Amino acid sequence: MSAHADSRARQELLVLGSRYAEYVGWLMQETGDEQAALWWTQRAVDLAAAGGDRALAGYALVRRGLVTLYQDDAEQTVALARRAQSGTLPPQIRGLAAQREAQGHALAGDGDACLRALDRARTLLARQEGEGEAPVIGSMHLPDSVGMIAGWCLFDLGRMRKAAEELDRQLALVSPDAVRTQVRYGVRRALAYASHGEIDHACALAAPLLEGVMAVQSATVTIDLRRLSRVLARYSGHTLVRRLEPRLAVLSRLPVS
Fold first, then answer.
1. 55-70 helix and 34-50 helix, angle to the nearest 10 degrees
2. What's residue 257's pLDDT?
3. Contact at 8 Å (CB) between 129 and 92?
4. CA quadruple 219, 225, 229, 230: dihedral sign
5. What are the mean pLDDT values of the chain's consecutive 10-residue runs (257 residues total)?
6. The model's pTM
7. Cα(225)–Cα(120) distance, integer angstroms
8. Is 135 left (phi over 0), alpha (psi -120 to 50) or beta?
9. Cα separation, 102 vs 124, whole angstroms
10. Pair 78, 64: CB distance under 8 Å
């Protein structure tokens, strides 16, 4: 369509196509195909640039940082996120990049750098909100994305109880209809409680999530689900663990389709 449109319509179509390509890249990551995720993300950048939108290239670095985060590569996650915090980029993208940087620092065990990045993220994202409407980039279902990422980071920093409590607060704000968000962060909350030794509570939190786990079949959720399964396996004498283990084992081994 863009090949046969006038200049303005062509730019709008290319930018629209870039948003779809970015979304497909995210979907590919959720199926576990990281190479396809990176290919589609780069395709999104190319389409956006052809349409006159240079900002998406910055967000692509944030997306690539998510891939390296799940590869447990803290150094590369931080490096990519810092590249996406150029002053020429919109505050929203720089704020999301600061969040990703915080996750990288947490993975590396650097609590001070993590908290500084989270503070920067909150400032930048608040600035974006003050500038009015902007295209949605990132999650649509996190009322307080910095707070949720803080809970995520506290887990990687080994502060399990604080992580669990922060995730409690944040998940209470998320709509029950946002199934993937509830599952993604809900599994991490259960993992935090289990890692803190609160096994029965962890099981009680995890059990209602399993239908959602089956529904979303997310590769990124499955990573934490496997971690949860390994932690609970140490407590096979608990009644709730024995009830949960068979289904948890099946779901944590399911190939993502």
1. 170
2. 45
3. no
4. positive
5. 80 90 90 91 89 85 91 96 90 95 98 97 83 60 92 97 97 94 96 96 96 90 93 92 91 66
6. 0.87
7. 30
8. beta
9. 14
10. no
Specify the pLDDT at position 100: 97
The pLDDT of residue 133: 52
CA 31 to chain centre: 14
Distance between CA 31 and CA 182 in Å, rounded? 18
Tokens 């096994």 belong to: 199
How large is the C-alpha radius of gyration of the chain? Answer: 19
Within a 10 A sphere around the Cβ of 142, how many other Cβ atoms?
Answer: 17
What pLDDT score was predicted for residue 177? 92
Residue 133: which residues within 8 A CB-CB, separation 6 or more? none
What is the number of other CB atoms lying within 10 angstroms of the CB of residue 138? 16
Q: What angle do CA 150, 71, 64 make, to 5 degrees?
A: 75
Q: CA 114, CA 101: separation in Å to the nearest integer?
A: 7
pLDDT score of 88: 86
Who's near 224: CB < 8 A, 6+ residues apart? 184, 187, 188, 191
Instruction: Tell me the DSSP string of 145-197.
Output: HHHHHHHHHHHHTT-HHHHHHHHHHHHTTS-TT-HHHHHHHHHHHHHHHHHTT
Q: Specify the pLDDT at position 6.
A: 79
- Contact status, residue 16 vs residue 50, Cβ threshold 8 Å: no
Q: What is the C-alpha to C-alpha distance for residues 18 and 86, in angstroms, rounded to an integer? A: 21
H or E stretch covering 134: none
Residue type for position 98: A
